[in-house]
């Protein structure tokens, strides 16, 4: 049965955090900690949705059963509060379609489609179209195209992206990881000005203010697992053309962006877990191999960034927002 969640009002826009997935020391999913994390993030005012089964939840290391369980828990905890974007991580189109059908049966509101890994070896517009049409034929849920940097081989060149939006009507947004400002701006202008607009959700979290000022209609970011409230406030300030407030908020976000998105980039969500531990929102920061625990020196840098961001006092006392006080009271 096909279904469309009317909470989207035919569009995908606004602030959409991608949550993390806690693990026990034996690498099994810590369901209790995950439920608390979901409640914590969902308590933030001004969110449009949350994203699961994506980079932030270490989807590449999760089995099909685990991805299904993550979705079940998410629906149970916050399904009545926020729409849920379900990641589609698959190298083959048939498997991607299977995941899409499963996500819809579990009441997902939208799909975030990752590019297939084989595209690193080269792709054509016809390949990209075949992939997305296979998914779209399996479900009528709105689709977010994850636009990778072109240098990875998995990003879609402008002509391909145009054809995707022309020929796959269920594509409603892109998650834009384009690091080139000129390309990023061109995509914002071209996609959001279409007769049937396709929203650009930035995931350039290392330079979020600059990206939002270019005109993105939203953001989808793993760092929202830690600073969803700051991101929501920043988005509102930019939308209101309050540049002074946006700069003030960005000054708080910048130190965290610098430590989260340092090299190696693959450790970004590893670092976010450590930040959540320091903030008392996660019991431990376990990641699955091939990721490994970061060094104590790097954890100290995260602690310093949390202090600079005004989330942690120099003595280690957590400075909680009103939403977090309510959740943890």
Q: What structural category arises from helix and sheet content?
A: alpha/beta
The count of strands amounts to: 8
Shape: globular
Largest beta-sheet characterization? 8 strands, parallel
Overall mean pLDDT stands at 94
H/I helix tally: 12
Q: What is the terminal-to-terminal distance? A: 41 Å
Q: What is the C-alpha radius of gyration, as a whole number of Å?
A: 19 Å
Q: Please indicate the percent range of residues in DSSP E strands (runs of 2 or more).
A: 5-15%
Walk me through what this model shows.
The protein has an 8-stranded parallel beta sheet. It is α/β, with parallel strands linked by helices. α6 (181-192) links the parallel β6 and β7 (199-202). The protein has helices at residues 31-42, 64-78, 93-105, 125-138, 158-167, 181-192, 208-213, 224-239, 243-260, 268-278, 296-308, 322-328; strands at residues 14-17, 50-52, 84-88, 110-113, 143-147, 171-176, 199-202, 218-221. The model is unreliable at 325-329 (pLDDT under 50). The chain has 12 helices and 8 strands. The N and C termini lie far apart (41 Å). The chain is globular and about 55 Å long.
């Amino acid at each position: 049965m096909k279904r469309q969640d009317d909470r989207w009002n035919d569009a995908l826009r606004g602030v959409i955090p991608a949550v993390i997935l806690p693990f026990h020391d034996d690498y099994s999913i810590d369901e209790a900690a995950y439920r608390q994390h979901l409640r914590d993030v969902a308590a933030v005012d001004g969110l449009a949705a949350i994203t699961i089964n994506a980079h932030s939840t270490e989807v590449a290391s999760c089995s099909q059963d685990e991805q299904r369980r993550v979705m079940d828990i998410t629906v149970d905890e916050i399904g009545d509060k926020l729409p849920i974007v379900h990641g589609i991580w698959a190298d083959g189109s048939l498997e991607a379609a299977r995941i899409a059908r499963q996500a819809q049966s579990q009441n997902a509101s939208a799909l975030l489609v990752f590019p297939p890994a084989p595209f690193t070896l080269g792709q054509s517009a016809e390949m990209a179209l075949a992939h997305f049409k296979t998914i779209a034929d399996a479900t009528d849920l709105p689709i977010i195209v994850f636009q990778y940097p072109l240098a990875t081989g998995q990003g879609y060149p402008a002509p391909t992206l145009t054809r995707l939006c022309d020929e796959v009507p269920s594509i409603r947004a892109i998650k834009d990881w384009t690091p080139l400002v000129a390309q990023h701006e061109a995509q914002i202008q071209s996609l959001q000005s279409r007769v049937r607009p396709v929203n650009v959700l930035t995931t350039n979290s290392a330079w979020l203010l600059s990206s939002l000022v270019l005109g993105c209609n939203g953001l989808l970011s793993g760092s929202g697992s830690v600073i969803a409230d700051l991101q929501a406030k920043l988005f509102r300030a930019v939308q209101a053309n309050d540049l002074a407030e946006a700069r003030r908020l960005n000054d708080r976000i910048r130190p965290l962006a610098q430590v989260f998105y340092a090299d190696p980039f693959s450790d970004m969500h590893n670092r976010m877990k450590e930040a959540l531990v320091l903030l008392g929102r996660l019991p431990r920061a376990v990641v699955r191999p091939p990721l490994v625990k970061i060094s104590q020196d790097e954890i100290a840098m995260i602690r310093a960034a949390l202090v600079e961001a005004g989330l942690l006092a120099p003595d280690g006392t957590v400075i909680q927002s009103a939403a977090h006080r309510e959740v943890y009271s």
